[in-house]
């Protein structure tokens, strides 16, 4: 009987793949099989001097930097992240987080992570959106990686305007002074994995890393769901 009702429900509210918009079959969970295979992975997690890591050279010191997928305008990855950010699709975020973790757990660069730290969202934005999308990614990652989640040490202080239509310089001014670390001792001599959804110019990560650097002996690595050219 339960199957009958869920099948009936699926006729009226069919589940759609958030990445490509096709109907999901009964065996497909969160995203469809072809998207699972077609979404372009970067392979950056094992390469020290990958293009994303190079972007931060001379700006801030990071141990390892990678993004799981390439982000293309109107592409599958963009649709998936859009669902996570604006349509409360928590499953999309958990899926992306698990994929991110599967990739980095195979890389020696990301060994012995002490804390997973999502890039903080301003409390005002959390009130509007209901959640921090990077924290959902981190929760997905924790299903694969054993490290604890830290959301109360690196925090955001001031709200910024939406970043999408600004030049790199304007974004930098915008994010420079908005993060703070409450207790540097907690991150002293630890390997911190910073989590973000999409990295474009890197200004948010740079600002976070510069604040985290106040913890003595800290090692900072970065994992994003996707990277896009700035
Ligand atoms: Zn699909």
Write the layout of secondary structure elements.
Blueprint: H1 2-12, H2 33-38, H3 51-56, E1 65-70, H4 76-86, H5 90-104, E2 115-118, H6 123-129, H7 133-142, E3 154-156, H8 168-175, E4 179-181, E5 191-199, H9 203-212, E6 219-227
Helix pairs in contact: 4-5, 5-7
The major sheet is characterized as: 4 strands, parallel
Order of helices and strands: HHHEHHEHHEHEEHE
Q: How many strand units?
A: 6
Summed up, the domain count is 1
For the biggest β-sheet, the strand order reads: 1-6-5-2
Give the names of the bound compounds: zinc ion
Helix content bin: 25-40%
**CATH architecture label:** 3-Layer(aba) Sandwich
CATH topology: Rossmann fold
CATH class: Alpha Beta
What is the straight-line distance between the termini? 52 Å
Strand content: 5-15%
Question: What is the mean predicted local confidence, pLDDT?
Answer: 89
Low-confidence stretches: none
Structure description:
The chain is of the alpha/beta class and 230 residues long. It has a single domain, classed as Rossmann fold (3-Layer(aba) Sandwich). The chain is 37% helix and 15% strand. It is built from 9 helices and 6 strands; from the N terminus they run H-H-H-E-H-H-E-H-H-E-H-E-E-H-E. The strands form 2 sheets. A 4-stranded parallel beta sheet has the order 1-6-5-2, with helices on both faces. Strands 3-4 form a two-stranded antiparallel sheet. The radius of gyration is 18 Å and the shape is globular. 37% of the residues are buried. The model has no long low-confidence stretch (mean pLDDT 89). The structure holds zinc ion. The site of zinc ion has 8 residues, from helix 2.
